[in-house]
Design goal:
Layout lengths: L16 H5 L13 H6 L8 E6 L2 E2 L11 E5 L16 H9 L2 E7 L4 E10 L11 E6 L4 E10 L5 E10 L4 E10 L4 E10 L4 E10 L2 E10 L5 E10 L4 E10 L5 E10 L4 E10 L6 E11 L5 E10 L4 E10 L3 H9 L4 H17 L5 H12 L13
Helix pairs in contact: 4-5
Length: 389
Amino acid sequence: MILPSNRDENWKYAALRPLATARLQAPDAVRTIADELLAALPQRITNHVRLVLQDGRWSSALSDALPPGVTVVRGSSPVSPSADATDADRRLAALNAREAQETLRIEVATGAHAEFEIVVLCSTPAPAGMSHPSIRIELGAAAQISLLERQLGSDESCAGNLALSLHLARDATARITRVQAFGARTQWFETLDYHLEQNAHCDVVHVLQGAAAARTTAFVAHAGRGARLDWSTVALGEGQQVQDCYVRVHHGADNARTVQRYRGIVADRARLGFNGHMQVAERTSGCASDQSLRCLIAGEQAEADVRPQLEIHTDAVRASHGATVGKLDADMKFYLASRGIEPAVAEALLKWAFIADVLQHIEPPELRIDVERSLAARLPGALPAGVLA
């Protein structure tokens, strides 16, 4: 299979060298989960059914019993809208469709409400193979879902390739929080495919931390009139990490709306990339797109590449975009220092304020506190002692 390369326009900032030498096939067997990974499993969120995938396979030992509407389909993944090996942006989805051994399917019936926590574990050493988790979620008309997706990995060198598709029927609502916290040697790739029908609403908060290299490729289709997307990403890069995102949103119906936020903080020799590609189809009217892409550079050798793309084929549209990359405001640092705040604490406080407008979108509050606690550990001094106790 031909894999994407840095010569492909939307992959120029991704870390793809590991793919050249990796064993792309799924592991022959899932090994016993390591104690340190078990210890890293977070506290449960109230009322959310926990479903655990370990190296692409459902773990009955770590999961709750499968509720109605949730099934595990054995065998290779069904072909999804993203599985097109001729398109560089979709080749890894095609690889997942070929190699996935199971697919977790969640169906929320018309008018029903469901709350799930999906934990994706990547634990098998890379020489044994790449894990290929496959998840498909379908919401009926006026259905609602609260979905927390946690991604964890062991401290060993691991590799994973997730494919997730989400279909929202008319008037359906999805509130999604995705928290990526892999070990420092994990290589992670994922392809997301969201399809929104009339008046469907999808609210996504994506938190990126950990992993040696990570790439998110997302396709969102506003297929019905009045479909809405609110997409927020916060990324922390340090050491020599590479975190790259490509999010393409196609406004294919009247009055489709998208709000997109990106807040990245990159230190040391790390690299962050975010490409927000907004498409507005011809013969549509009333569509709106708002992008705010901002990144802080906190290291002399750090790199950030944020790119808003507008591809508009109609005049009846409102589109705004902004992209900035810079360092912490020296005047603000001086002001805090003049108030007796230590320089390191002042810097952490300013970094926290920089990402706060994304974190405020996380619900429920106990989940937000859990995410804030994990991020605060990377920004010591950002919050007063006891705030998140």
